[in-house]
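Something for you to look into today, if you have time. Could you write out one complete protein record for me, on any chain you like? The space below this message is yours for that.
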Amino acid sequence: MQLVKVNMDEFKIDIYPEYLKLFPEDEQKPYLLIEKSVNNNIMNIFKIVVDNRMVGFIITNTLKENGCVQLDYFAILPEYQSKGYGSKAMELLKEESKEYYGIFIEIEKPGLASSEEENKIRQKRAKFYERLGFIKLKFGLNLFNVIYSTYLLPCSKENILEEKVIEDIFEIYNAISGEKRIKENCKLILG
């Protein structure tokens, strides 16, 4: 298995159709925002490849002056799920991110979904990341009126304060969406 960084042409052909199928419309970033973020060297898009076949993809956000990688989107295509590809892809991403102190994710908070089925999916997602070594942080986020739990996968032995993670992740959000939009739509939830 390998992570293969792709350009916007490859993204448009290979990944974008899957992205549109796999993520709910309200969780998708507009194509032009993705393109702008890639062109500004904030967003990186990787195909997850096994035996010359794409089995999934990972989209991350980073800033050069920042020590954090934000895992924005991660998907294993349905026909390849439950085969260990997700765990292996995360190991490769951790190796790819070793110059950073950690990989940050936000997960829709379990227990707050509109259906029991969705709550089970959220709980399963949280357990998957915890099994991989992600540590639940003491703060959550209200992003565009959705409540998220936050996690960090340490990539170095460096001890990082959560205040630094908050600072770094908001720098990434601001770089992608603009400070005004983030200030209006993203709130920290302590506890």
The beta strands are 2-5, 43-50, 53-61, 68-76, 102-108, 135-143, 146-154, 186-190. The chain has six helices and eight strands. Residues 110 and 122 are 5 Å apart (CA to CA).
